[in-house]
């Protein structure tokens, strides 16, 4: 680990390319040659250039994330001080770089922290070396070479590395805020930026006078005389009065140059301050570093998994998990060990074991294919006392292997996740080969899979900052929804929808002056294929084909963009990258119907502003000019997309309103069905719940009353919701008061989707019960009917019971690539103690239900594709391959109970999934109270009519 | 190799320590020839390689085939390859347990575990081929899957260290009595004296039962017409009742072929047990060998059902009984629950047997 200057400090086991060393050498030599070049000039922010420009990587990719101000604060307060999170998260990579002059274009793939470090070093090389001498043995290379943060391990977890007489403190600095706050007089930066008060001996009396006279101070030690309240310094808790600031980002400072050094900080970032502690400080806390090096310390990860107490990376290290990309073609001369491993992540002890048995994966893949003539899909094994599932993906002569413990990820889920990983990587890099086999992608892959495993193994760690209710909701749904083939859709009223659609269409038309061909008399750079708009993580408008939408949604979900946007943690997000949407690329290969996709290149542009996130798919080639090389983001397009979002900014209030208000099918909390809370509720609204509950099997509502109440409105809903586009709002239109009027009551009152909202009529119904015989008899009466008739019969009686017993639902429109489910706010509003458990159960159950449906769908597609032989149909079907509906009844008895004398009456609820194949594949999952009459079960599924897009 | 064939099951038995193949039995598949030795070798080798590194390979799955490995008593490795669509890790695991139990039944555990002469062991094992082959056939009953008594094999690997005799006597056509006894009463004595002594008085009843045998139900009980098959398990008494002809043998084929009913009910059972209802732990093994999906639920599943294009199925998991019903597709979904509950009540009410 301890290397000598100027070797870079990549602790990753992979050696960085040799050019990196050259880069360092270069930087040093230029530093020597240039002396203290007036670098600060080029660092002063240029108003005309977008702030993300310097983040563009060499290959044109950009991932620029600027957090909101609140978020910056939160980072400082929440996490350990040293979290190497600056507000610009970027994917760094091992690339050669030449720094002849400090100009943005040449240092694009650098983090700002490094840049500053380098630049400062270049300026004061000599003093840096003198610092080195003082601190001999103190630092590892990180201090000297330009450290890549990404590769940089998190050895300084505690935030302070005390070595000999120095300690390093990492604090966050935001020069822009300071300049905003104090407009007039130029402040002493040491105070305003960091919050350290230092007074030159002769100024001690005039404490609040700040001027540039500190320049006159000669080589004076920067003793911390005081800390400014509320400043970064005091919040860090590590800087003590009496400490001496000796270096900023390893540049030696004294009272003379400190202001100059600090003025070089161009934008919000994190800096390392090196202090010589006061003699009073105890030296006990030293030697805390030297944890085993971790690969790929990750900023985005840190940002998202702000684990309260420990390093997130660390907590999953002990869980065996691995991804490997293996080559099946083995060279006969095995000169190199492990040559078949093209890529591997992570490198930890637990995964080492799985790596050591890669022979199993390779052999199994080989022999099973020989024997059965089919690719291997999965295998299971015991390892470290845990059952591990391994999913395989074979592509030509390469094998992708992903292993995860069964307790975290069930096998069916793992297969889906693996398929999604493959899809995502293909979308991002064109093929698995190009993703894994190119050296410059390795760090990106590390990052990708770091995120992947965290989402798989620690879904709860994510979203830790949202309000508790929705947090839990997210946590337990995360695993299920991670590879749900859809995006959470939010239905909006017609007028808002029109407004959004118009704005997006305007953008897509590409009609703005700069983009028109006539304006510059040249072909436009890109054609906009389509766009989709997210608000707080919900999809609110989509102008993309389903395949593209799914690709983009997978990407956004994987990089956790949606939760970020949901919490307004983003102040600005700009993502640009070349993508390979298979939907377009494949159809361009086989031209069938006269039309063929142009041979074009595709680019993804995602712009996030606050809660909005607009993803745009661009095409270069075709009717626009061909893309040459690796084009970076075009600022005109970025600006136009931004403008589109800004144009829509006004509607956020109305969308928020919709988010706050309960959506069409109201859900209720299971806790309301417990006797204790029932008492409370009865004061709010007299509930017919009790009687119903005790006598569930008889509570069949007479069809007549039902028809009167619901029949028309439900049917109307059904018919007014057309298959495409605009129908979503009709449901809202139907029952505005029913939807919103009683929200605050929180009563478990009946809110049928059809919308009957008069509680008076409600009671009439309950009195009418027992008119019909029990559902069983009803069933036998009707049993002569064909299935279809029976279903139709049930459609007519579509209703819920008198009280709302629907707990949760998910409606997946496979055709549109979207799903509809109660919003986070809605779930959070329900609260309760058992309800979160219920939702967790619901999602887990959906996993198993969905795995059955997937079998059915696979069979269907096979059937339609005609690949199956006729022999297949003659075979006795096993029964599990044509499942259309699957339900499970759960019993939950609350653990602790206020009234200890009486035994707790258990609450029973159903989780049911149904698969519709006609006219288009749809999946619907509901969870409702057991007291719903069996007839009314049908209701739940009919809801989906009202939910249609 | 067997791409073009339908269902096929291949069972490999090897010694765990040396990897010597003991036998290979297979069912189905148009290709009659056995797996080449190299394949058998590598299937076993890959497992051995793992166990040397403390990694226990348990299952693998390709698009059309499942493979399950299991080692018994550190001495016998059983490997099964099944291309049956209905096969699950659960059912294949049970299959291997049954096969091993059969071997124990015939040879005795001692003989199996500490076999000195491999060649002799191979020869001895030929005696259980018929029994083993019967397991490979698509199930005719449920006991092989449920391990609740209804079958020829003791579910728990009872310690059959001393030689026992396994005797069957046909009482009336279609009805046999099976005895497991030590060396003392001679075959002659049992056949001539004991059987007569115990079963003679019941002959009428036996004949009656034999006639109704596929139904498995006393003639007095009648089930709802929608029911195509049922499996009732008494967990405490380890007994089960299984039938796919609840209304007698006559003219029921039109609804759904018997074979499909068997298959559907069995796979529904396997589904419910492996996903929702906790199955009792098999003694000895502390670690679950299959994924314990139900462990992830915070509440207890009580009922579950599936609706498929060809049938419906409903399961109840009670404290003492488990009921699995196979129903006609035209039984309304909302009636399933009450139908199942009343069936369970009818079958368990005053009836002493279950």
Automatic annotation (TrEMBL), chain A:
Record SUPFAM superfamilies: PDZ domain-like
Entry protein name: Protein inturned
Residue ranges of domain PDZ in the record: 222-277
This protein's record includes keyword Cytoplasm: yes
Positions of region (Disordered): 1-48, 720-757
Pfam families linked: Intu_longin_1, Intu_longin_2, Intu_longin_3
Record's keyword terms, sorted: Cilium biogenesis/degradation, Cytoplasm, Developmental protein
Subcellular location: Cell surface; Cytoplasm, Cytoskeleton, Cilium basal body
Main localization category: other
Compositional bias (Gly residues): 725-741
Domain of life: Eukaryota
Family: Belongs to the inturned family.
Gene3D superfamilies: 2.30.42.10
UniProt source species: Gekko japonicus
Listed InterPro entries: CCZ1/INTU/HSP4_longin_1, CCZ1/INTU/HSP4_longin_3, CCZ1/INTU_longin_2, INTU, PDZ, PDZ_sf
Feature: compositional bias, Polar residues: 747-757
Automatic annotation (TrEMBL), chain B:
FUZ/MON1/HPS1 third Longin domain span: 226-350
A Pfam family reported for this protein in Swiss-Prot or TrEMBL: Fuz_longin_3
InterPro entries: FUZ/MON1/HPS1_longin_1 (IPR043972), FUZ/MON1/HPS1_longin_3 (IPR043970), Fuzzy (IPR026069)
Domain FUZ/MON1/HPS1 first Longin as annotated: residue spans: 10-134
Top-level taxon of origin: Eukaryota
Protein name: Protein fuzzy homolog
Organism this protein belongs to: Gekko japonicus
Gene: FUZ
